[in-house]
Amino acid sequence: MEMDKNVMQKAEVLIEALPYIQRFNRKIIVVKYGGSAMVDEELKHRVIQDVVLLKLVGFKPIIVHGGGKEISKWVGKVGMEAHFVNGLRVTDEPTMEIAEMVLNKVNKSLVQLVNELGVKAVGISGKDGMMLKCEKKYSGGADIGFVGEITKVNPKVIYDLLEKDFLPIICPIGFDENFLSYNINADDAACAIARAVNAEKLAFLTDVEGVYRDFNDKSSLISEITVDEARDFVAGGGLGGGMLPKLQNCIDAIENGVNRVHILDGRIPHCLLLEIFTNKGIGTAILRDGDERYYHVGE
């Protein structure tokens, strides 16, 4: 009987995914969701499909999202002026109020998308369960308003949700010792949360293909790098502006117990599945020293 080639390919893809499914069963994966994948409706659906699939094959995914573009839009809509210090938006009290409203709106729209695919999601902010405690963050000594630096993560509410089989979707609003609200950089929040729950993996969806040895040479994409190599790379000073804090965050996460960090191009449909379930991978994986490499194996 002549078997359709496409059908056979599908079977091969599923078998290729098997070792990864076995390896990560019941493990926590934190997905930092941002960039174009949050703005383009089709990409948004695909990311959510990926996360739902991860959940249904036994992972315990957590989504941490930002919403900077959306905040800027609403600040403009209400006719407010944006003020910047050192290139960073100053979050005064009225801006903070809008940021919190907008992030919660984004949060519930993601909850709805996951729910529509038949998985129960719960949206929370860092204020829920007193999860993200922070203090005021300064930029080069300058006051940039209600922008927070996380000082303590209490993951209890996350564990409670995971235990009851919910998919937590977290927006990065924290509180200080006076219980005032603070906006937190979503990359920082994802890292701090991944560390606090001892995540197996932390995946950043970005608008770049990954980390390049030389940004001007697109063939120099690094598919795997150890944390030691990443430290040398940061110290070498060859990194583009936006990637430096991201890579530093990745190094911190691995030093604090996260096993593997992935930097992925969220503009590629189903980038999460391709990175996690195939032998090739498509972004940059940062791994702890001594951890086995696995993109060249045919496990």
Keywords:
299 residues; alpha/beta; eight-stranded mixed beta sheet; four-stranded mixed beta sheet; 10 helices; 41% helix; globular; disordered C terminus
Write a short abstract of this structure.
41% of the residues lie in helices and 25% in strands. The chain contains 10 helices and 16 strands. Strands 5-8-2-1-11-15-16-14 form an 8-stranded mixed β-sheet, with helices on both faces.
Tell me what you see in this structure.
The protein is α/β, with parallel strands linked by helices and 299 residues long. The protein is 41% helix and 25% strand. An eight-stranded mixed β-sheet has the order 5-8-2-1-11-15-16-14, with helices on both faces. Helix 7 (186-196) runs parallel beside helix 9. The model is unreliable at 295-299 (pLDDT under 50).
Strand order of the largest sheet: 5-8-2-1-11-15-16-14
Tally of DSSP β-strands: 16
The number of helical runs is 10
Q: How much strand?
A: 25-35%
The whole-angstrom Rg is 19 Å
Task: State the secondary-structure class.
Answer: alpha/beta
Q: How would a crystallographer describe the biggest sheet?
A: 8 strands, mixed
Secondary-structure element series:
HEHHEHEEHEEEHEEEHEEEEHHEHE
Helix content: 40-55%
